[in-house]
Structures are given as C-alpha cells and as structure tokens.
Amino acid sequence: MLSRLSSCRNFPQLRSGFANLRTQARQTVSRDGIRQPVAKDYHYYGRLILGGGALLGGVTLMSIGKTGGMFDIEVSALARSQLWPAYVTDRLHKTYLYFGAGIAVTGASMYMLRNVQVLNNLFARHPILSVVGVIGAQMGIQGAQRSMPYTTENMVPKHALALSLYGLIGLLLAPAMAMGGPALTRAALCTGGLVAGLTGAAVTAPSEKFLTMSGPLMMGFGAVFAASIATSFMGPTGAMGKGVYALAIYGGVVLFSALLLYQTQKVVAVCEKTPSHQTYDPIIMSTGIYMTTINLFVRILMIMSGNKRK
User: Fold this and answer.
1) Inter-residue contact 253 to 50 (CB < 8 Å)
2) List of residues 6+ apart from 164 with CB closer than 8 A
3) Which of 17, 46, 59, 183 is surrounded by the most beta carbons within 10 Å?
4) In a 3-state reduction of DSSP, which class is residue 117?
C-alpha cells in the first residue's frame, strides 16, 4: 500500500488535483476554523421554489393515482382514445400540428433576425417599451384571430395572423441568439423534454383532474407577472430583489409547468365535447400551449445562462 501511495509522486496531474482540493478547503474555512456560509443568490432561492414545486407535483400525482382505481369512471385520455370518433382525433392532430409549426417558425425567425442591428439597438436602448409594444401587438393579433371563425373563407387571414404571431415572438427572442447555439440547443432540449413529460402526465392522468387548478393558476400567474415587471426596476441584490428574481424565473417554471398540464387536458376536453357539426379552431387552441412552451424556454434559458456565469 505504501509503495502505491509513493507512486503518486510520478503523476503531476494527480498531485495538482490534490492541491486544488486543499486550496478549495482552505478557502471555505476562515482563520478561526469556522466554515464560511455559502452565498445565497436568487438561484439558491429559486432552487427552493423548484424543489417545493416538484414535491407538490409529486404528491399531487401520487394522490391522483391513489384515488383512481381500476373501476374508476374517470379514465385517462389515453385510455379513452381507443373509443374516440375520427373527428376528435383529427382535431387533436391539427392542434399539435399548428403547435409544432409555431415552434418551427419562431425558431426560423430568431435565426433570420439575429443580425438585424436596428432591432438589436431598439431592444437595447428601449427594452421596456419594446416588450410592451410586442405584448400589445400580440394581444391585437390574438383578438383578431378569435374574431374569425375557423372556416374555409377565413383560412388565408387566419393563417396570416398565426404566422404574424409566430414571427413576432421570434422577433422578441432574436437577441437571445447572441448567447450562442450550444446554450440555445441545451435550453431547447430541456424544454422539449419537460413539455413531453408534462403532456404525457396530462393524457395519462384521470380525466379533467388538472382542470380544477384554474383558480390557483390565475393567482400564481398574477404573482409571477408582477414579479416579472418588478425585475425591470430592481436588481437581484438584497433579500427583496433575490426573492423577486427567484419568483419571476424559477416560480415561472413551476407555474407554466402546471399551466401546461391544465391546457393539455383542456384541449382534449374541448375536442371531445364540441359536437362534430360545430366549428373547432385548432389555431386558437394551440396558441395557449405554444405561449406556455415559449415561456418555459425563456426561463430555462435564463437559468442556464445564470448558472454558467457563476
């Protein structure tokens, strides 16, 4: 054993590794031998929010699985899909086709607008006014979409408005291209995995279990929206600033994850309960899932970029 330990002298990489460990140990201990406290930034508080949200979600899923037995009448959407008529399946296919097209168009818009200097200067000099203008344009587009029924004569304006919305969101996210392709790719993959997992949880849960969360979701949305606005006027310093940033970013991940569960079951319920002779609008129904996914992507990207700078 002693001969093996003495042979470590011949490996400078191993010796430097031990030296780095000793240096890190000395840095975390004060002169009096007392361990220094870990700095608590908004990422620390955000992880607490994510941990609490994950715990709450796990308890909720376990309670749903425990209350639903083999002979429970509230079967999942996946189980009911074997009995769906063709028009219900067609509605769901169209809804998620528009959702996928929206994500693709937004990504292409981000790439094409990444080097437009005028837009970059506008967002850099007037960030608040730019975001307010984009939100106003988004509300106008969605209002115009809802005013038109999904009929053959309205196909051209409906699709033009949908493309305008997807391109507008791409315009808003175009400055994020400066972070580089690998960072965006990692955030996109994490978002895709999260959305796929939440969608699977929604379609395998008992019918309409998540549709009862509308009240708490509205309250949570108000809190996250207020925190997001507050981040424009205060930095992530101090207890108040750290809490606000943690609520806006990490709390937003928890909120929009729960919102995606709600929206997924709502889409299925609307597809099932709307009679075949009534008009169903897959563009409107896909917009909610699309915007929730965009919000998740933005917050995951912010978390990854913040952790990388630490």
Assistant:
1) yes
2) 141
3) 46
4) helix
Q: Are 168 and 141 in contact (CB under 8 A)?
A: yes
DSSP letter for each residue of 157-198: HHHHHHHHHHHHHHHHHGGGGGG-HHHHHHHHHHHHHHHHHH
- Contacts of residue 268, defined as CB under 8 A and 6 or more positions apart, other chains included, come to 77, 92, 202, 203
CA 89 to chain centre: 26
DSSP string, 219-249: HHHHHHHHHHHHTTTS-S-HHHHHHHHHHHH
Backbone angles phi, psi at 90, to 5 degrees: -65, -40
258 neighbors 198 (Cβ within 8 angstroms): no
pLDDT in tens, 42-67: 455 445 555 555 555 555 554 554 44
